[in-house]
Design a protein that fits this description.
The protein is of the alpha/beta class. 44% of the residues lie in helices and 16% in strands. The protein has helices at 17-32, 45-52, 68-83, 110-113, 120-136, 145-155, 171-174, 177-184, 204-213, 234-241, 245-248, 259-268, 284-290, 319-329, 337-350, 353-365; strands at 2-6, 37-42, 58-62, 87-91, 101-105, 139-142, 161-163, 191-195, 222-226, 251-254, 271-274, 295-298, 313-314. Helix 13 (284-290) links the parallel strand 11 and strand 12 (295-298). The radius of gyration is 21 Å and the shape is globular. The protein starts with a strand and ends with a helix.
Length: 367
């Protein structure tokens, strides 16, 4: 089989759910599927090669166009025909012209359930594009039971929806505390961490309010946000600007961190909080768990599956409950090493790239 993988998401230089998914799935698959010729396509083919390596059956295709619509309408169909591709894997949206069997992963359709958190232009364009791609796919994938149920409800695809969930890079569990502390060099001290791109549904403002109204700064904790803004949240910055200087100096916003430094931020956190209102999956709390960090996590949408967090789950729109859970998360009992180890093992058993890739390979052989 000649398998084409649209990997243009790696061109932005920003880690996100889609890049985590493609990287985790295919780094495992290229190790074992010697009967498949892989063609990874993006503009930054050097970055792709640094991720997926050099193997006889791994090839890289450089896109000529930066325009996503030109790529989907003209360039990808030409590449597929020229290379004799048997199947092609796309995230969310497939090309205008179908020239081979299509694998489509639609990670979520949150904009249909929560339109208030998305621009109107996004809602109207994606509703049609995702629906068309879902109904036309020869293999339709998603990442959680929640997203599967929503896809089936809204689009009624002609083929069964298969689940290939996300997992966690093993490096989150390998970093040593001493190495992480040396890398951060004590620049913040004790801190509560939230890693996520900034947009309204991610709920940064409520977490900031909980931090302020719970007076956690008086106990020596800073609040650290790491993530690039994808949909502006002006009220978040207005709230922050109105804070007294002694509080504001304990709140940190970082757009992006190199991967090795991000690992260190996870490892050294006193508590990881994930207050997102809606997710198709929700990778960061699992990364925190594998890093051995105490975590409190929203119990909404796909995150309902994260039952291994036990009493660490909560209603992300309830300010008082958020404060209570942060209090719990900072308590000695919540940081018990045996408890954290049980959670880590539960995550690694359920979300393992090797087993996910094996199941995906079985789907490919049935195409």
């Amino acid at each position: 089989m000649r398998l084409f993988v649209d990997a243009h998401a790696f061109d932005g230089g920003i880690s996100q759910g889609v890049t985590t998914y493609i990287e985790g799935l295919y780094k495992e698959l290229v190790k074992t599927a010697s009967d498949i010729d892989f063609y990874f396509a993006a503009q930054d083919t050097m970055r792709l090669e640094s991720i997926f390596g050099t193997r006889e059956n791994v090839h890289y295709v450089k896109y000529g166009s930066k325009n996503k619509y030109r790529r989907l309408a003209f360039e990808i169909p030409r590449i597929v025909r020229r290379l004799g591709i048997d199947a092609a894997h796309f995230q969310y949206t497939s090309p205008l012209v179908k020239r081979c069997k299509e694998i489509v992963t639609i990670h979520d359709v949150l904009f249909l359930d929560y339109p208030q958190y998305f621009p109107a232009s996004y809602y109207h364009s994606k509703k049609w594009l995702f629906g068309r791609s879902a109904r036309r796919a020869d293999l339709l994938l998603t990442v959680s039971e929640y997203s599967k149920e929503r896809l089936e409800r809204f689009y009624r695809p002609r083929k069964p929806v298969r689940i290939t969930p996300n997992a966690v890079d093993e490096r989150y569990g390998l970093v040593r505390r001493s190495e992480a502390e040396a890398l951060l060099d004590g620049r913040v001290g004790k801190y509560i961490l939230y890693v996520s791109r900034v947009e309204p549904r991610k709920n940064h403002l409520l977490l900031l309010r909980a931090y302020v109204e719970g007076r956690f700064y008086e106990r020596g904790y800073a609040l650290v946000f790491i993530g690039k803004t994808s949909i502006p949240v002006p009220e978040l910055h207005r709230y922050c600007e109105k804070l007294p200087e002694d509080i504001r100096q304990n709140v940190f916003f970082f757009e992006q961190k190199p991967f090795e430094e991000l690992l260190a931020w996870y490892k050294c956190a006193s508590l990881f909080v994930y207050p997102s209102i809606a997710e198709g999956f929700g990778i960061p709390p699992l990364e925190a768990a594998v890093a051995g960090v105490p975590c409190i996590c929203s119990n909404r949408t796909a995150m309902q599956d994260f039952r291994f967090f036990g009493e660490g789950t909560y209603d992300p729109e309830d300010l008082d409950q958020t404060i209570e859970k942060i209090e719990l998360g900072l308590s000695p009992a919540f940081r018990d090493p045996e408890r954290l180890e049980r959670i880590r093992q539960a995550v690694e058993r359920r979300y393992d790239w090797a087993s996910i890739a094996k199941e995906y390979y079985a789907y490919l052989t049935d195409l």
